Amino acid sequence: MKKKAKAAKPAKISKAVMNDILDNARVRVVEVTMKPGSESDSVELPVRVTRALKGGTLTRIFPGGKKEKITFKTGEVKFGEAVSSHVVKNSGRGTIHLYSVFLK
What sign for the dihedral angle of Cα 96, 97, 99, 100? Predict the structure, then answer.
């Protein structure tokens, strides 16, 4: 008698963890932690300054499939222009920890 193969469970994708540090009329300050393979919800980013507390590689995935890789070195600070709606995925092998100041 043959055993039935168990149906494979779909892989659960972990979500990025975003913690608000400060939010007022001029800025929003957040800490973001992303485990390997984790993804954000769809986000639209304003002008911002980001420091990598722990670096790694992210991939922005835009509607229509366009992809853009961003690499942060630990301690690196980057200025970012506003970005239209997209999903961010940790495409590296380690956890990424970012500190961002979004300008309003």
Answer: positive
| Ranges of each domain in the chain | 27-103
pLDDT band at 82; cut points 50, 70, 90:
very high
Note the pLDDT of residue 12. 67
- Domain 27-103 in this protein, CATH class: mainly beta
